[in-house]
Design a protein that fits this description.
2 strands, BilAc:Na_symport/Acr3, Sodium-dependent transporter, Na+/H+ antiporter like fold, mainly alpha, Na+/solute_symporter_sf, 378 residues, two-stranded antiparallel ribbon
Amino acid sequence: MTTASCHQGRGQCLLVLAQRHLTWVMPVAYGAAALLPQAGQWARRMPCAALWLPGGGQAVLTVQTLLLAYVLFVAALQVRVRDLTVLLRRPALLMAGTAANTAVPLLILLLLAGTFLLLPDADGGSGLLTGLALIAAMPVAGGATVWGSRAGGNQTLVVGLVMSSTLLSPLTIPLTLAGAAAVTSGTYSLALARMAHLAGGALAAAGVVAPCLMGLAVRGALPEGLIVRALPWLKLLALAAALALTYLNACGAFTDLIARPRPALLALATVAAAAMCAASFVLGWCLARMLGAAHADTIALTFTSGMNNSSASAVLATTRFPGHPHVLLPILAYSVLQKLLAGLADNALAGRRPADGEGAAVGPYLGRGTVPPLDRLQ
């Protein structure tokens, strides 16, 4: 074994070790946010730079946005563009899945709005609806590649749907935010409408699409051997960045909950997030069955419909609604619940799962047991 391969092996061993303990590390990040929020609150208030956006908007680059950009960059770095050209021969499923990722969460949001507006809350439930809208607006989470692979799904289709929804997010995010503005009220409606009309697409392009395109470009420009050797270490750093992002995002909401306990509001946020996530999984599966998709394609559509990038929505919630920490509650609940529901969907679809070693995944996404840690945090 060469020195380079030994170096890569150490990184891969550390990566596997981190994956094994990830289930326990996540609660530690939430516990730290509840018990030691001071460092997180200081970091959240520290601006790094500012970007002027088309339409007169301004995006402040914070520690959170930079951490998210790195996580998305590393996620895209694992994708080989040439593997996605296979989808050009079967564009129907790709277009249907991309449309479902935009339409299904928005439909569920509109259905929930009628119930939320009947709440006795001072804002009529608009705060929680805003959090759900930020979830619905986000592209497919990179974690869908992990769960889709575990369940024996068409990994090429999963990766294609992740990338297509991400690249279209400058168009789909303003559309979803405009729909949410119509069913919310007060300052929430005004803020969502402003984000949709002035800066929604530009924010998506700068904060979501740009890091992904940079990752794809770097993957295509550098030698494959160099990328393969560096990926384990880059993934470890992305895992640390994602955990730091989880801590920072949770600090504001948990501090407010401890200072002003509102168990009914927390329960409602959890139920609403569970309803949106579960309905998205079910409707994705129903869409695949209606299209007569093969089993592997059904798995791909199910997971990509049910998993949205909660890390990106949490960053938007904390940066665009800093004075309304309860907007973050359904996002934090969704982040945890989508992994639990993905596990249930994995078990439900496991009847025809390919045996280990069969149906090799596309490109850098390996089979069952090799899980990119950063994706599991989205």
